[in-house]
Amino acid sequence: MWSPAPLCALGRRRPGPSAPLQPLTRLLRREYREKTPIRLLHGEYREYRELLLSGQGWGRTQPLPPRRFVSDKPKSRRHPKTFPVLDGRVPAVYRHVFEENLRNSEAVIKRYSELLEKVKKGGGENAILRHTRRNKKLFVRERLRLLLDQEDFLELSPLAGLDMPYGDVPAAGCLTGIGRICGIWCVFIASDATVKGGTIYPIGVKKQLRAQEIAMENRLLSVHLVDSGGAFLPLQSELFPDKLHGGRIFYNEAIMSAMGLPQVAVVCGSCVAGGAYIPTMAEESVIIDKIGTLFLAGPPLVKAATGEDVSPEDLGGARLHSQVSGCSDHFAPSEEEAYVCIRNVVSALNCHPVPEWDREPDSPLYSPEELLGLAPLDYSCTLPVKLILSRLVDGSRFQEFKATYGTTLVTGFGHVEGHLVGMVANNGELAHDAALKGSHFVQLCGQRGIPILFLQNTAPQPAGPASISECGRSFSPNFLFLWPNARVALVDSRHFPTVPPAGDWAGGELELKQLQAKLEEESSAFYSSSRLWDDGIILPQDTRKVIAQCLEIMEQKKFQAVSPHPHPIIRM
């Protein structure tokens, strides 16, 4: 995860004691409440957090600096290889714990892989066949293959929407993530019309809002692939009327435009009701012939209201909007040509990619596959956190800060694929001295403009806000990921009493067991990720790669600053 400096926390999040956390909590709380600029990477400042948190109008964007680009010439990023080397060997005394953790990791990764395969099928094989053969459309993952550069992209919250109270909504009905287009990191939001007919569920609204938040925090341009039937009306009370419901998507579009963050769209299917607002509020949009339609109310509603029979193409087809209404800027005869067109649009946005640095990073001295044995089955199976750090940082080199003070929290500096990063990692129950040490270290990183990676593994007893104060979700980290073994809860269900306590407890043993089972289910990483309490589950052995991707994504904002527009682009 990432936060003010920006910060990052990933790994296991568990509850911990409350009293020792005051120094660290006060620090993070102060940084978010004060309206003074917050120090960012390489000395850059951001004052627009007031704007995002206050809900004020476009006028708040005026103090922002003009968009400009600094030199994009590649520079040497070789860092001195003088940091001490961590001893990452697993002591023989811990071998049985390592093996127990390994067996648990294999089991939870198996479940994760099964869920991921389920999600990749969208609405199912029959829905995909209808979408591709009858409707002559490309499946959403094929669309992304044509849109993005030929390299890996970072998909966000792929398990969102599973096992919800209203049923499964695979991937929340839309794919979101960050990938490169013409070398430029972009946030993408792509509708999957094979899921629930392309209608938007409450979890889908939440996922799109999170993608927009990431775009604003990291100053990334956005690309929308819209193929939506509008809101799922039976759940309209959960996705329409409130402040952070569907209307916030359009509000964010306006704010991002005023911030100078480009947004472009492809109408690659039906865009009905709220779905029609997204491409018409974008800076540039492409509509695809025969399959792209754009209207607030479709032919059936027109028939009901006026008695008039009208075809989708005549009401809001590609030729109408590119030749008559002007709602679309580009007409594409086919999907393939649409993604070529939108890539050309991105290349004309005057955005520069991150230069190719001469980093030449060293790999860790220890295998990342061994992280499977270091991911704890539960808190009692925790091994020294430096064993994890030695498998994440370049050359297993780590410059520790206050090594002999507050030893239940490890703080220090390392490099991840050449990026300098501060690290805050739990190494036992967080005591007052450890919290004070963490507070001091966070301030140092803020002063120096160094991103911070939090590795959370907090003690289960007593219950407390340790994981929150270590840049939990409520502190708005730039990114937050979980390992599949992670448990997220205020109390650990495994420490929950199953015998009724003495006193005024009115329930019986059965009620306690039911409550324990409920807590057990709700604290799993899969439950968390399906509800978008995080940005996705990542495999332990992929952690270094994901951290490096996030650091590079965040680095792109150094090469542009937002423009002080008094208002967004208004197309109508």
Description of the structure:
The protein is of the alpha/beta class. Helices cover 33% and strands 14% of the residues. It has 18 helices and 16 strands. The strands form 3 sheets. Strands 4, 5, 6, 7, 8, 9, 10 and 11 form an 8-stranded mixed sheet that branches. Strands 12-13-14-15-1-16 form a 6-stranded mixed sheet. Strand 13 and strand 14 form a beta hairpin. The longest helix has 26 residues. The chain starts with 6 loop residues before the first strand and ends in a 17-residue tail after the last helix. The N terminus is likely disordered.
Question: What's the quick description here?
Answer:
By secondary structure, the protein is an alpha/beta fold. The chain has 18 helices and 16 strands.
Give the strand tally.
Answer: 16
Secondary-structure class: alpha/beta
Strand content: 5-15%
Q: What shape does the CA trace take?
A: globular
Unreliable segments (pLDDT under 50, ≥5 consecutive)?
1-8, 10-20, 27-74
Please give the largest β-sheet: 8 strands, mixed
CA gyration radius, whole angstroms: 25 Å
Number of helical elements: 18
Mean pLDDT: 85
Query: How far apart lie the N and C ends?
Result: 39 Å
Helix content: 25-40%
Protein name: methylcrotonoyl-CoA carboxylase
GO biological process, one term: L-leucine catabolic process
EC number: 6.4.1.4
Pfam families: Carboxyl_trans
